[in-house]
Amino acid sequence: MIRRDRPRVVVVGAGFGGLWAVRTLAFEPIEVLLVDRRNHHTFFPLLYQVAAAEIEPEAIAFPIRGLLRRFPNVGFEMAEIRGVDPEARRLETDGPPISYDFLILAPGSVEHTFGVPGVAEHAFFLKTLDQAIDLRNHILASFERAAREPDPFLRRRMLTFTIVGGGPTGVEFAGALAELIARPLRRDFPTLDFREVRVILLEAMEGLLPGLPDRLRAYAAARLRRLGVEVRLRAMVEAVEPGCVRLKDGTRIETGTIVWTAGVRGNPLGEALGLPTGPGGRVPVASTLQVPRHPEIYVIGDLALPEGSGKLPMVAPVAIQQGALAARNILRALKGRPPQPFRYRDPGTLVTIGRNAAVAHVFGRSFTGFPAWLLWLGVHLVRLIGMRNRLVVLSGWAWDYLFYERVVRLILPSRPVRDE
Amino acid sequence: MIRRDRPRVVVVGAGFGGLWAVRTLAFEPIEVLLVDRRNHHTFFPLLYQVAAAEIEPEAIAFPIRGLLRRFPNVGFEMAEIRGVDPEARRLETDGPPISYDFLILAPGSVEHTFGVPGVAEHAFFLKTLDQAIDLRNHILASFERAAREPDPFLRRRMLTFTIVGGGPTGVEFAGALAELIARPLRRDFPTLDFREVRVILLEAMEGLLPGLPDRLRAYAAARLRRLGVEVRLRAMVEAVEPGCVRLKDGTRIETGTIVWTAGVRGNPLGEALGLPTGPGGRVPVASTLQVPRHPEIYVIGDLALPEGSGKLPMVAPVAIQQGALAARNILRALKGRPPQPFRYRDPGTLVTIGRNAAVAHVFGRSFTGFPAWLLWLGVHLVRLIGMRNRLVVLSGWAWDYLFYERVVRLILPSRPVRDE
Questions:
Q1: Fewer beta carbons under 10 A from the terminal one: N or C of chain B?
Q2: Residues A356, A317: one domain?
Q3: Neighbours of A233 (CB within 10 A)
Q4: Whole domain around residue B248: which residue ranges?
Q5: Would residue B172 show up in a list of annotated catalytic residues for this protein?
Q6: CA-CA distance, B132 to B173, in Å (whole number)?
């Protein structure tokens, strides 16, 4: 089936980086194989809205095979990568091995616990759809349990939600959770005393959203506080225990839910494949995104640490631009041309905080409030893959905006889902 | 919090029967508590479309608390019922006990294996949303595995899907699965040989859809065969083994997927509560739906076997009518009036087989094809709860109809879900 007269490029990971690499390689006289352990692409920027019961998980997932149908030279395999033999140019998988002429590794990132005790065991994460579903189910189940709990200590603990990390994910989720509680859940649970409900956002640094202009950071903190979120700065987590977060200053927070958004690190696949890794488990590569001594292997996206680019943020635009570049460099290599270095064109940052509220740092300008929020909506709707997904997400937002209703207040599946 | 000056009616189960009982009791001078172990109502008639990757599970689920908001006298508890003390009029749960003055039991039904060996262990069922999600994920994963499987025997087995039971669920699912395979999956898997894919429908009786006029039954079988379904009548399953179904006539069918729709029985809750049960685990009740010697306990829906009604089908209209009657009988009892007996008004039967094809037996008339299919669509869309759910389901149908596309071809959650 494999026409080995044409060079074969294998792309591992169907996130933003992998998809853009595949798009760039489509319709070229090469064989392309995309490999992922899931059968769908996930639109990560809206993951927190799944956890906040606003949109269905299906609405931000898209079947990979559906995306690839229009590319005659691109195939797909749902497989787990177990190892690589760079000399033989072969990937070991949970099934038959996969050989390649060029390899693009784009497995993304996973949560980073920084070795804080108890985080891996007791915290929720927001890095995969399974995790987002699990967190949504847990939040809704906490309210259901609290409604039946006569012990005030236990009830208050069930109703205390602690988010660790004041970056974009922590800020966006804190806002979405506060708004879920403020109207939809308040109407759902008329017998609960909502003064017992707390949303706490812990950030180790001096302020939220590090890296953004101070005005935007102050706006974000003020908006979250107005939504009832307790924003605690300079709060360093020492340990997480069942039902409790301990801070370095000795504070104990009794909390039934700990959401850890404090850090991400390169996917352990880099280490598993025997590639040398640097800070945050990322793989150092040349500025051309090639692995030293193996110019046929490219690493892109959250896993890559390209020379000369400084510390790039782990965001979709970086992955997209690197995916396209790695693909172009492979096409150049096939034509005997030298590879080009990566230069990041930063399109800016958009973070939403809640209804009519967001911060934008784009086109060299900073703005907040309704215009930033509208821009956020538009950009995310346009970037989302699939017309029906856009329709479903837009209707979820409309129900939220018009009726103050979160339509996916469902504990479903009703049995726990746990990501490995 | 409980104002015990007003009589308290507890309704167990938020299916069709429970919801219609609650609706009938709303705004009356009584306290009503609805109890379910899930936080959502499930619209069972479309469960098979979830398993066939056509609509999202969320689209046929609705948050119970959202349904009850407009009823000031109705509360909800998400709880598992463990036992009943009829003398003390108290339900034991997994949390605090619940006391009642009147009790309506509407827990529904579960799959019935008829003691056939291996069914409970190796078959998939279509009775809960978790099961439907699990089946969808398994079907899609079977195609992904088959695409990588070099062994033709194993590959053919992975691609053989066997449905046991030629009632409405088996017929509707067989048609939906055949259409999922015929276009969307055929386009998704260009390297697979689709002559290796089989859908087999086994029915123990002489024909499909027992109870319907012969013309409709013949039409259903012919339509399914035209969709490529192998319809085997008089096929009695002796045992289910991993990867294999054995029939009583000695036939062995090598199959990676067995979907058991051959029978349902009353929810085991009836037995767990110590109620005497009759055929199919159903609880014999008076024609007024009251339990003998405990006129304050009503049993309705799939679990009830009311005197003088014959063998009622386990369908939504029966549950809805019984829910309303049980509620009215409680209101009558409170006014000192005698209870009324149950009389089933059969609204007819609608079964869809696929695109433009259905059978209808309504208003004393039988018809097939496009008019029956349109009627099926309309009835199900109107009955579905929630405007946004209707929008999402309608868009799923539209994508299927217009683009031959199943939008939810997602293995999600990516870890297995298993119903207890």
A1: N
A2: no
A3: 14
A4: 119-262
A5: yes
A6: 11
Residue linked to tokens 């809640």: A354
Residue with tokens 């856009």: A390
The answer to whether the beta carbons of residues A253 and A245 sit under 8 Å apart is yes
Same domain, A236 and A364: no
Do residues A50 and A169 share a domain?
no
Tell me which of A28, A54, A172, A203 is the catalytic residue.
Answer: A172
Per the structure block, which two tokens stand in for B147? 């695409």
Contact with chain B for residue A147, Cβ under 8 A: yes
Whether residue B143 sits in one domain with residue B213: yes
Residue B79 domain-assigned (yes or no): yes
Question: Could you tell me if A248 lies within 8 Å of chain B, comparing CB atoms?
Answer: no
Distance CA B290, CA B285 (A): 5
Residue among A39, A77, A389 whose CB faces B140 most closely: A39
Q: Do A148 and B95 touch (CB under 8 A)?
A: yes
ipTM metric? 0.95
Q: How far is B213 from chain A (nearest CA, A)?
A: 38
Residue B281 DSSP one-character state: G
Mean pLDDT score, B76-100: 96
Q: Is residue A339 part of a domain?
A: no
Q: Of B307, B334, B361, which closes a domain?
A: B334
CA distance A157 to A134: 19
Cα separation values, A383 from A42, A316, A325, A390, Å: 12, 10, 19, 9
Task: Report the domain count for chain A.
Answer: 3
CATH number for the domain harbouring residue A251: 3.50.50.100
The pLDDT tens digits for B304-351 are 999 999 889 999 999 999 999 999 999 999 999 999 999 999 999 999
C-alpha closest to that of B392 among A390, A372, A122, A250: A390
pLDDT tens, A56-82? 999 999 999 999 999 999 999 999 999
B173 in a structural domain = yes
Q: Is residue A415 part of a domain?
A: no
pLDDT tens-digit map of A140-196: 999 999 999 999 999 999 999 999 999 999 999 999 999 999 999 999 999 999 999
Structure confidence at residue B145 as a pLDDT band (50, 70, 90): very high
Which of B77, B150, B420 lies at the smallest CB-CB distance from A96? B150
| pTM confidence score | 0.96
